[in-house]
Write a structure and sequence with these properties.
The protein has about 220 residues and is of the alpha+beta class. About 55% of the residues lie in helices and about 10% in strands. It is built from nine helices and five strands.
Length: about 220
């Protein structure tokens, strides 16, 4: 091969090798930059968001309205852990649904009633499943079961091993709800009434609203 052609091929090979090196260097630098937490730090979302267990705890506080409750008392009532009780009370206070008076949590009734009757069913929509054994809720449980005649349709139930009925699964606000409801009849009624608000027809919602209005 003539010397001039060898030089041309050598120059071409060198330029191609240099380009690959440049491309690799750019890629490595970009990768390092993109992985650098200081240069690509995302803004922190500090918006307070209520969780289902927060609303569940508020319903439990309404159940024992006026009674002094310690964190262990609320944990025993709801089946939540102590840390979950603490977090739920803090978020409810930030949402202005609850206040501490003499270190005791107290539901702010006007705000809670507004949220319960007009907003909670959109924040915590009903989630249904298939046929299961469980604990009756909504219109199939007290106090609405005395006001609404049963139909041929399977009733809504919270899935639970100790349930007495078989029906369409309705996921409770929190996994500990069925067991806690079986321990406390008044809490059971409040939880069932809320289920009627979030999944019932117009008549069931109206009846649940009337009962809550009288209780709060």
């Amino acid at each position: 091969m003539p010397p001039y052609r060898q030089r041309r091929l050598s120059l071409f090979a060198n330029s191609e090798w240099q380009q690959k090196n440049i491309d690799n260097t750019l890629f490595i630098n970009y990768f390092r930059f993109s992985r650098n937490k200081n240069t690509m730090r995302r803004p922190v979302n500090r918006q307070v968001v209520l969780k289902p267990q927060d609303f569940y705890l508020l319903l439990a506080l309404v159940t024992v309205k006026g009674e002094n409750q310690t964190y262990p008392d609320l944990a025993a009532l709801t089946g939540l852990s102590m840390s979950e009780v603490h977090g739920a009370l803090k978020r409810a206070e930030q949402a202005r649904l609850l206040a501490f008076l003499d270190r005791q949590p107290r539901v702010l009734t006007p705000a809670f009633k507004e949220f319960l009757l007009h907003g909670a069913r959109y924040a915590f929509p009903a989630v249904r499943g298939g046929m299961v054994g469980g604990v009756p809720t909504a219109y199939a449980a007290a106090p609405l079961d005395k006001k609404i005649a049963p139909s041929g349709d399977p009733p809504p139930v919270w899935p639970h091993a100790e349930g007495s009925a078989r029906g369409i699964a309705l996921m409770p606000l929190y996994p500990s709800v069925p067991a806690a409801a079986l321990r406390n009849p008044v809490l059971y009624e409040n939880l069932a009434l809320f289920d009627a608000l979030r999944m019932g027809n117009a008549r069931e919602r109206n009846l649940a609203t009337e009962i809550f209005e009288a209780r709060l």
